[in-house]
Amino acid sequence: MRKFFVLWVSQAASLLGSSLVQFALAWYLTKGTGSATVLATAVMVGMLPQIILGPFIGPYIDRWDRKKI
Predict the structure, then answer these.
(1) Distance between first and last Cα of the chain
(2) Banded model confidence at residue 54, pLDDT cuts 50, 70, 90
(3) Which has the closest alpha carbon to 37: 45, 69, 22?
């Protein structure tokens, strides 16, 4: 149980860090250019891999042995 908790906390910290970097980059680009188009593009590009790959990778990973993952 301890190994799972350590893995879960580290994954949560990683996802939080990635989200903060994505937000900071979009904010930096928007403040630098003052353009709403740049903001929308930065957010879209940041979310695009999740939107495109998520529906395919999720079921693929579910077929693997959970103990090996």
Answers:
(1) 15
(2) confident
(3) 45
